[in-house]
Amino acid sequence: MGLTSPFLVQARIEIRTFITGIPSFQLLQIVVDNRLPIRDCCCAYPGSVHDARVFRNSPLKNLLSATPKSYHIVGDSAYPLEIGVLTPYRDNGSLSSLKKKYYKIHSSIRVV
C-alpha cells in the first residue's frame, strides 16, 4: 500500500494568543502537501470550536469538491469521512491486518 498519488495533510493546532493581556486559544487549520509548503490556512475560529465545524465552514471543503480525485486530505477522527477526506478506522480491537496497515500509514502521514 504505497502513496502514489499526491496527498494533502491537514493538521489542527491550537495557538496561544494574547488579546488585551488575557490569554485565549485560536484554532489554526493548516493544510500542507507531501513537500510541506502550506496550501491552505484557516484561523477564523476560537479553540473551542470542533474540528468538523471548522472544516465544514472552510473554503477547503468547497475546494475539495472541485479538486481531482487523486488529491485527498488526511484528517483525524474528528473530520467527516467523505470524498476527498481520509479518516482513520475506529480501533475497537478488531481491525483486520489490512485496516491496521492503513491505520499505521494514516497516522504516520499526519505527523509533520
Describe the structure using short key phrases.
alpha/beta, 5-stranded mixed beta sheet, 112 residues, 5 strands, disordered N terminus
Layout of helices and strands:
Elements: E1 8-19, E2 22-33, E3 38-46, H1 51-57, H2 59-65, E4 73-74, E5 85-86, H3 97-110
Parallel strand pairs: 1-4, 4-5
Antiparallel strand pairs: 1-2, 2-3
Protein model, in words:
25% of the residues lie in helices and 33% in strands. The protein is α/β, with parallel strands linked by helices and 112 residues long. It has one domain (8-110). The chain has a five-stranded mixed β-sheet with strand order 3-2-1-4-5. Strand 1 and strand 2 (22-33) form a beta hairpin. The chain is globular and about 50 Å long. The two termini are 20 Å apart. 12% of the residues are buried. Residues 1-6 have low confidence and may be disordered.
